[in-house]
Amino acid sequence: MADYDTIIKGGTIIDGTLIPPYRADVGIKNGIITKIGHLKSSDATRVLDASGQTVAPGAIDLHAHYDAPIHWDPHCTIGSWHGVTSVTNGNCGFGFAPVRHKDADRSMLSMERNEAIPFEAMKATMPFDWETFPQWMDHIDRMPKAINMIQLVPVTPLVSYVMGGWNEAKARQPNDKEMAEIIRVMHEAMACGAGGWAAQRLTGYGASVQRDYDGTLMVSDLMGDEFYLNMAKMLADYDRGSIQFAQVSGALDEGTDGPRRDMGFAGRLAEASGRPTLFNAVLVTDERPQVFRAMLDVVDSCNKRGVPLVAHGLTMRLDFRFSLEEQWTLFDNVDAWREATLGTAEERKVKLLNPQLRQSMREEYDRTKQPKALGDIAEFVCRKIENADLRKQYRDRTIRDIAKEENKHVVDVLIDISAADNWKTEWLTPVRNQSPEYCKELLSHRTVAGFSDGGAHTKFQTLGAYVTDLLTWMVRDTSMITQEQAHYHLSYLPAWVAGFRDRGAIKEGLAADILVYDLAKLAVKPMEVLYDVPPNNWRRVQGAEGYRWIMVNGQVTFENGQATGSLPGRLLRC
Q1: Distance CA 122, CA 118 (A)
Q2: What is 14-37 written as a DSSP string?
Q3: Of 72, 154, 155, 239, which has the fewest CB atoms closer than 10 Å, so is most exposed?
Q4: pTM of this prediction?
Q5: What are phi and psi for residue 451, nearest 5 degrees?
Q6: Could you tell me the residue range of the domain that residue 350 belongs to?
Q7: Which contiguous run of DSSP H or E holds residue 427?
Q8: 572 located within any domain
Q9: pLDDT digits 0-9 by tens, 241-286
Q10: Rounded Cα gap, residues 426 and 390, in angstroms
């Protein structure tokens, strides 16, 4: 019998821990890295020739929403195409357990709005044959998958379950009896291997773009400081588990006071729990670097005191593409826009042409430039347009340019062109995170790289390509960070934060979640549309080039970008 199932031969190892690169072979047996050194090819059943290639740990994505898409996409793409081998789910406090059967549709409706996951796809594929969180864990355990998962307990379904429904949970804070039951259910979840808990609290004016199906705030948004501190203290009973927390408590243009306050509260959660607390997200906006610097100052201050607060950095160069034909949700922070984009497609079209709503949109923009979470509307580009005559007139022009030429308000340009094109016009937002200097600064702190939102907002963004983008842009093309630094922020640090104790580095005794790639050939492929969301829906994707092999638990899941059919992923119970 061979000593190893697989030997990865002759590659340069970047082990994820920041030690210098070195040449060695990697021997794998039963899904575990059992030996690193000079190995004989004859001692393995299979030899992968990695000469001239980098051998690195698989990326660990700590902000994914594959809770629903795992039911129709066992590979959890697009992240797995780009080297993601493990994820956490349940982020933002959104998910599907615990849930009473009467609230099954209710939970799916919320995810359709706040994470833009199609209701029809969830309805067609999710059996809802669970109620408790342990039953959900068993369900996910049974699902075929190509990547590993840790499940966080999402606060919104947890509180709704205990308080008798979503409406009840939004009406008030839990009383003492209900809080005790919430904590009991959390202990039950931790006993079956939950990785901690997650929540968003986006309550500030101009902040909440992730709302419920009816446009109201989510349950997690409405819970107070005392609730979250009690949840953190509960986790202090364990030497495992983490917290994922997002908060925006003030206006987006408040300056640095609001971001400091929000990161500071996350630090209080980390201190109360004693467990790693991941704050998402820290976004490098090229025009306002003082905001991310203020947030990272709080992280540094906490770390100096031994408080395990970590920032989750959105490192990928980012833009969004959208049409008003779809249920566009990322203007939900403005009342008039939220009202106009709620409802069926026909209802939305009527409301977008409503003069009163239009006037409110114009007035809001003139007063605050809102909605501007994705940049100034005036800078949006008319990227694709169906009508041939309109295409000649408007394609690849900014709204600002068109508005000036036609003496129109920017809001009117956006809506009028869309309406004239039967709502099919595709708008492209400005690219954010374009400064490699700022991205380097972001990663010079305790910062997890990535933030894919994997499985969510798939009609609008392709953040799942963040691994390849970081390695090509920040390592190869600009030399702003080293490969060692990149894989530390992509694998080793996130493994520690989330509690992936048996993976995250190329070390003997750890799971063989491994990337073999040629840095010179790595590339993010052009964006395309795939019609692979059931029953007949679509999403935007970007593939990857340059990955020779991607391995999960010692099995090759992708070879030269092609799926092998192997589904070795596991639910990892903490």
Answers
A1: 7
A2: --SSSPPPEEEEEEEETTEEEEEE
A3: 239
A4: 0.96
A5: 70, 75
A6: 321-428
A7: strand 426-428
A8: no
A9: 999 999 998 765 667 888 999 999 999 999 999 999 999 999 887 7
A10: 13
Q: How far is CA 435 from CA 176, 195, 288, 311, 478, in A?
A: 49, 34, 12, 19, 10
Tokens of 202: 């986006």
Of 498, 524, 554, the domain-final residue: 498
Whether the CB-CB separation of 277 and 231 falls below 8 Å is answered with no
Type of residue at 442: L
Closest alpha carbon to 99 in 133, 143, 124, 69: 133
Give the residue from 81, 82, 145 showing the smallest Cα distance to 562.
Answer: 81
Assess if residue 503 is contained within a domain: no
Q: Which residue has the tokens 């030399």?
A: 479
Give the list of residues 6+ apart from residue 111 with CB closer than 8 angstroms, or none. 65, 68, 94, 96, 117, 119, 122
Three-class SS of 445-504: CCEEEECCCECCCCCCCCHHHHHHHHHHHHHHHCCCCCHHHHHHHHHHHHHHHHCCCCCC
Q: What is the pLDDT of residues 553-566, one digit of tens each?
A: 999 999 999 999 99
The partner residues of 10 in beta bridges, in order of sequence, read: none
Give the integer Cα–Cα distance in Å for 528 and 520. Answer: 23
Could you tell me if residue 571 is inside a domain?
Answer: no
Q: DSSP string spanning 167-200?
A: HHHHHS---HHHHHHHHHHHHHHHHTT--EEEEE
Contacts of 476 (CB under 8 A, 6+ apart): 519, 520, 522
Same domain, 354 and 236: no
CA 377 vs. chain centroid, Å, equals 24
Cβ-Cβ contacts under 8 Å for 365 (sequence gap 6 or more): 377, 409, 410, 411
